UniProtKB/TrEMBL annotation:
The lineage of its organism: Bacteria, Pseudomonadati, Thermodesulfobacteriota, Desulfobacteria, Desulfobacterales. This is Dihydroorotate dehydrogenase. Its cofactor is FMN. Substrate binds at residues 50, 74-78, 132, 197-198. Catalyzes the conversion of dihydroorotate to orotate. Belongs to the dihydroorotate dehydrogenase family. Type 1 subfamily. It comes from Candidatus Magnetoglobus multicellularis str. Araruama.
């Protein structure tokens, strides 16, 4: 029994409070069901399901994953079941949990984003939407929306008109000025910002002299990107008034704590799920133990406590 019972609850948008700051990163946790034999889904702060589009998508052809010395490259290409199948086959399973369900959505056009958001608005199970304007491996749309401030504004403003659900906007690190993009989506109506998505990278087979990924390039994730992610979260948290959610190379509780200290209200666990199916549970336990050891009664005392 802990000597104190610290409060781990965090608020990431109006009307959306999580029991703890540990969320799953889209694309690394399936639709929740895949990890349910290993993880108590009721203990998570939130479940963010695999990126969803209006129509089913097969993603990119293989090979589409490459291990790297400190992470992995993926070019999955947002393979998903599509909106209709998601509602029919995934929502019934997710309905049974006392954990906010957040759906990551993407479109090839601004109209697709808006239409999908409008459809999601009608589903009570969904607590919030994460708008993916940052995927680096979808040829149509994708990264272009997240690197151009005007396009980013247009997407989020259009989505905002179609839904009352909280909007989390997921940003790409593949830009010159991350703060500019963050301010732009905040002005367009975002309730929170999540960052970073993957860094664009590639791998080559020296024997065939060909790219290993069929898509040629993919998204780099894992421990290698954590210092970049931490710096960008720190920058954005200082300059926007809405909550920031940290993503990038979070493998354990210490990593998560670093993001909270630089100003993240919550964090997402991604690549770590492939290495350790219990990663999210271990991180929640580790955060709680840190608060107890340091006599911190509320996690809000830790968030943004960096001594600069």
């Amino acid at each position: 029994m802990y000597k104190i019972q610290p409060n781990l609850a965090v608020t990431i948008a109006n009307g959306l409070t999580l029991k703890n700051p540990v969320m799953t990163a889209s694309g690394t946790f399936g639709y929740g069901q895949e990890f349910s034999p290993f993880v108590d889904l009721n203990q998570l702060g939130a479940i963010i399901v695999k990126g969803l589009s209006l129509e089913p998508s097969p993603g990119n052809p293989p090979p589409r994953i490459v291990e790297t010395p400190c992470g992995m490259l993926n070019a999955i290409g947002l393979e998903n079941v599509g909106f209709q199948a998601f509602v029919q086959t995934k929502i019934p399973f997710l309905n049974q949990f006392d954990t906010p369900i957040i759906v990551n959505i993407y479109g090839k056009t601004i109209d697709e984003y808006a239409l999908l958001a409008e459809k999601m608005d009608e589903i009570p199970t969904i607590a919030a939407l994460e708008i993916n304007i940052s995927c680096p491996n979808v040829k149509a749309g994708g990264v272009a929306f997240g690197t151009d401030p005007k396009l980013a504004f247009s997407v989020i403003a259009s989505v905002r008109q179609k839904t009352t659900k909280p909007l989390i906007v997921k940003l790409t690190p593949n830009v010159t000025d991350i703060v500019c993009i963050a301010k732009t989506v905040a002005d367009a109506g975002a309730d929170a910002i999540s960052l970073i998505n993957t860094l664009t990278g590639m791998a080559v087979d020296i024997h065939t002299k060909k790219p290993i990924l069929r898509n040629i390039v993919g998204g780099l994730s894992g421990p290698a990107i954590k210092p970049v992610a931490l710096r960008m979260v720190w920058q954005v948290a200082k300059f926007v008034a809405i909550p920031v959610i940290g993503i990038g190379g979070i493998m354990n509780a210490q990593d998560a704590l670093e993001f909270l200290i630089v100003g993240a209200q919550a964090i997402q666990v991604g690549t770590a799920n492939f290495v350790n199916t219990h990663a999210t549970m271990d991180i929640i336990t580790g955060i709680r133990e840190y608060l107890v050891e340091n006599n911190i009664h509320d996690i809000k005392e830790l968030i943004g406590s960096l001594n600069e």
